[in-house]
Design brief:
nucleotide-binding, globular, 15 helices, UDP-N-acetylmuramoyl-L-alanine:D-glutamate ligase, Protein-Tyrosine Phosphatase, Chain A
Length: about 425
Amino acid sequence: MTELDWLFARQRFGVHPGLTRVEALLARLGNPQADFRTVLVGGTNGKGSTAATLAAILTAAGERTGLFTSPHLTRFSERFVVNGQELPEETVLDALRRVRPQAEAVEASFFEIVTALGGLLFAEAGVTWAVMEVGLGGRLDATNVLDPRLSIITNVALDHTEILGETREAIAREKAGILRPGRPAVTGVTADLLPLLEAVGADLWALGREVCLQTTPLGWEGWTVQMDLPGAALTFHTPLLGQHGARNAALAAAAAWRLGVGAEAIGAGAAGVRWPGRLEVLPWLGGRVLLDGAHNPDGARALVEALRGLGVERLPVVFGAAADKDVAGVAEVLRPLASEVILTRAVLSPRAAAPADLAPHFAGLPLRLADTPAEALALLPPGGLGVVCGSLYLIGEVRPRLLGEVAEGRERWQ
């Protein structure tokens, strides 16, 4: 069994919130996370694009920057990026071989191993800053074992309620666990949740309060963002689509400013960011396909609002999701957008709902079922614009087909 086979097999043991095992694992590895400074990026939606933008800005500022994100789309090594470049697979596998016996000794879970692996890889790559996307929640997420100089909480919505709590307030308290008393933090949560974050005692800036922004749409080219901060004003371009993309870029820019990055580097980094699989447009059969990992109602609303802002009223929708997601809520949001719905599933994800089980949520719409993502893509009308949305595992199986790449081919749980 190869190291990756061993690691992926551990996905089946599930998620085990808590910091004891990952602390023990990092200690056995010599606490590599002490060799660099860290930013933690949590929230329900938008974590990845915010983290990617901040990492690009820090790199533009001359820092050697690590970016840790999850899940990956096509290749495991996508999770570990240094200065905008995915680490070579052989580098990742060599580090994993060294991590494995230590992980087995402490019975670490899949994500705990991946987090510790990221710390080791970044230390050995000599990064000065690591931007770490939080996995699940915050307080008990493995990434929270790190000691962030600054934390970002993008937003809070209902997702993973079986673990994080049934209300937005309960989820906000869990996500507030990545904040540190007296240290800077930036957030885009709604005003009613701010007191829950402020209770931690962090030096918190919030969108709409300390951070005010105006956005000018540039169509499919993204946005011009103008920001007023305490004692400063910034203007920059982001290629991220959707109003939420502009907001996420603003969160990253505000965080960078608080870390001492200047306006020129903020502009250069924000303009150069790319975030695959999230409102990403790729060519297909003489037309275009937009990929987006909108797997909860808030994410679906952001997708619909983005397309409306781009002048798209109705289009074919390919959709697939895990069985434990709020499919009814997502379907209700997507319904006015869909000229037809093609339901499919991520073949490599055992958690994926069968297309027939998704179908009742889309009753009344023109509906077709496809057993595989390849069949779903073949059903899209050629020459136009279609959207593939839902599970990131689905996006991870569709994207390589659009690009002519080879997918990883391993079962996906996390």
